[in-house]
Design brief:
With 588 residues, this protein is of the alpha/beta class. The chain folds into 4 domains: 4-87, Arginyl tRNA synthetase N-terminal domain (Gyrase A, domain 2); 120-161 and 267-384, Rossmann fold, CATH 3.40.50.620; 165-259, no CATH class; 409-580, Isoleucyl-tRNA Synthetase, Domain 1, CATH 1.10.730. Helices cover 52% and strands 10% of the residues. Strand 7 (290-293) and strand 8 form a beta hairpin.
């Protein structure tokens, strides 16, 4: 469906043409004086210079042609030459009915759908998910859902970190604790046990211990590096342990992401790209892209226009070991080969920005990606606590994602039980839903690239710009609709009429922005635009609700029209929160 602003521009162009003026001046914008009008056209100011007339004279010249358009109910020329516009109720009602009839509520889906891979989540195996992993998961999931809504093929890949030193650390620590395990017996040739020699809790206890030890004890670190190297060389017993670590850890990760309502299409991992590395290195050498620098193999990626130094992209260390870079480049090869994406989006901490500049330049220079494949880095800022420092537990430790989720759920549970009469079993489920809304909305309502403060008190409030407030509004609409149905009403009957009052008109104007909002939010990869849209819409609805007797409206057609408006508002709000990655209960 055409955006409302595009339709208004068409009308303005017609008016300017009829008045004998150039259409380049006919531009309508949202009013910056909402107390006076809804939209305005400032073209008379610019036209005045071209036509050597006073702006107000130009405005008056086009005014009659705006007046004859069925789209406007009120047009006014005001000094020094503004044209103030208000939309006709009939036109808006028609727009509402058209939105309601459209499966996508007026959103123009992509004419040429693209294949877009989105690399998000990015957890490291065997380390518990902590709050630092929240943003990538939440932002990535939202962008994936937005892209799908727009009609693109979105492929989400968790890109597990499974190939680094953490594996060697765990193996080393296990060996210290249980040297008799068959995995450490070099003469063993049989089948390794199917059961892992540790549980997820043990694994999560082992890693931080090993990591701390390696920082204090260089010899221990040496052992861990050696173990990592042997694993990467394919040592049988270590491979078997790696498999156990993967199974135990991935199961746990899946559970955690499920609780967050985050779902990946691919559970690929760094190690999946390893087979590409030897060929890639050969190719980069042969084509002359890579050269040796102090024993290491590097590709220069600086450009003349650089204002700060961009160091070369290192492909192999002097000992021949591969790096994070190497894996990311090889992963690009894998992605190109398997999926031929038009774009790859990386949702990663913005502190990795320079790193991705190097990787992207290197991939382009060495032609690992097609010329028209877009590589996008979507860097996000840090989630801070109220003290402005990275969010921590009360004791100052790293906050696990699970703990955060549980804490917020408990908080919501208390509020729900305090406020309402809701069944115990329902209260738990509802608390989980509201908690997710609080966390995700709290995160997504901030521009992704900025740091923000995770303010539990504010995020869990039912008032203000919060997830719970949005859910509360949806639940309010749902409960009116179900009362209407219980009393024998048919929610599908009738149609939306021209608004009966100002608050209803404001709600219609807010609804009408849905297509532009979603289209822009996806184009700019900016979920916060959807948040501010639904906050405005929820406010517009609540204002209307407080002023209007809906179910007791006596005029049947008017009552039906209200109900249709409520349905549309509920659907637009629920679609929007789906795009943000959460959903609303029926009651709360
Ligand atoms: N595992 C990485 C980390 O913890 C994030 C992975 C981001 N994705 C990528 N393709 N490098 O920093």
């Amino acid at each position: 469906m055409q955006r409302i602003i595009a339709r208004l521009n068409q009308e303005a162009e017609a008016a300017f043409t009829k008045a004998g003026l150039d259409t380049s001046f006919a531009k309508v914008v949202v009013s910056n004086r909402p107390d006076l009008c809804e939209f305005q056209c400032n073209g008379a100011m610019a036209a005045a210079k071209t036509y050597h007339k006073a702006p107000i004279a130009i405005a008056q010249q086009v005014l009659p042609f705006f007046e004859e358009s069925p789209v406007f109910s009120e047009v006014q020329a005001v000094m020094p030459g503004f044209i103030n516009l208000k939309l006709s109720g009939e036109f808006l009602a028609q727009y509402m009915n058209d939105m309601q009839a459209d499966e996508y509520f007026g959103v123009e889906r992509a004419k040429e759908p693209k294949t877009i891979m989105i690399d998000y989540g990015g957890p490291n195996v065997a380390k518990p998910l902590h709050v630092g992993h929240l943003r990538s998961a939440v932002i990535g999931e939202s962008i994936k859902r937005m892209g799908r809504y727009m009609g693109h093929t979105m492929i989400g890949d968790v890109h597990l970190g499974d190939w680094g030193l953490q594996m060697g650390l765990i193996i080393t620590e296990l060996k210290e604790r249980q040297p008799d395990l068959v995995y450490f017996d070099d003469s063993f040739e049989g089948e390794y046990p199917e059961e892992a020699p540790f549980t997820i809790s043990e694994l999560e206890e082992i890693y931080p211990k090993a990591s701390a030890k390696s920082k204090e004890d260089p010899e221990y670190k040496e052992k861990a590096m050696e173990a990592t190297h042997l694993l990467q060389q394919g040592k049988r017993g270590y491979q078997a342990l790696w498999n156990h670590i993967m199974t135990v850890s991935v199961n746990d990760l899946k559970k955690n992401y499920q609780k967050l309502d985050v779902e990946f299409d691919l559970w690929k991992k760094e190690s999946d790209a390893q087979p590409y590395i030897p060929g890639m290195v050969e190719y980069m050498k042969k084509e002359g892209y890579a050269h040796e620098d102090q024993g290491a193999l590097v590709v220069d990626v600086k450009e003349e226009t650089d204002t700060k130094e961009i160091p070369p992209c290192m492909i192999l260390k002097s000992d021949g070991a591969s790096l994070y870079n190497t894996t990311d480049l090889a992963t690009i090869m894998d992605r190109m080969k398997c999926y031929h994406p038009d774009e790859i989006i990386y949702v990663v901490d913005k502190r990795q920005s320079l790193y991705f500049t190097q990787v992207f330049r290197c991939a382009r220079k060495t032609k690992l990606v097609d010329e028209d494949t877009v590589l996008t880095f979507l860097g996000f800022g840090t989630m801070n606590g109220k003290d402005g420092k990275p969010f921590k537990t009360r004791q100052g430790g790293v906050m696990r994602l699970e703990t955060l989720l549980n804490d917020i759920t408990e908080e919501m549970y208390k509020k729900i039980v305090d406020n309402r009469s809701i069944k115990e079993a329902d209260a738990h489920k509802t608390a989980q839903m509201v908690a997710l809304a609080a966390i995700k909305y709290g995160d997504l309502s901030n521009q992704a690239s900025k740091d923000y403060i995770f303010d539990t008190e504010r995020f869990t409030s039912f008032e203000g710009d919060t997830g719970p407030y949005i859910l509360y509004t949806i639940v309010r609409i749902k409960s009116i609709l179900s009362r209407y149905v219980e009393n024998g009403g048919d929610t599908k009957a009738g149609k939306i009429l021209a608004p009966a009052g100002e608050s209803e008109k404001a709600m219609m104007l807010a609804l009408a922005d849905f297509n532009a909002t979603v289209e822009n939010a996806f184009a700019e990869k900016a979920p916060h635009k959807i948040c501010s849209y639904i906050y405005d819409l929820a406010n517009a609805f609540n204002h209307f609700y407080h002023e209007t007797k809906i179910l007791s409206e006596e005029d049947a057609e008017r009552r039906q029209s209200y109900i249709r408006m409520l349905e549309l508002t509920r659907d637009v709000l629920e679609t929007s929160i789906h795009l943000l990655g959460f959903s609303a209960p029926d009651k709360m």
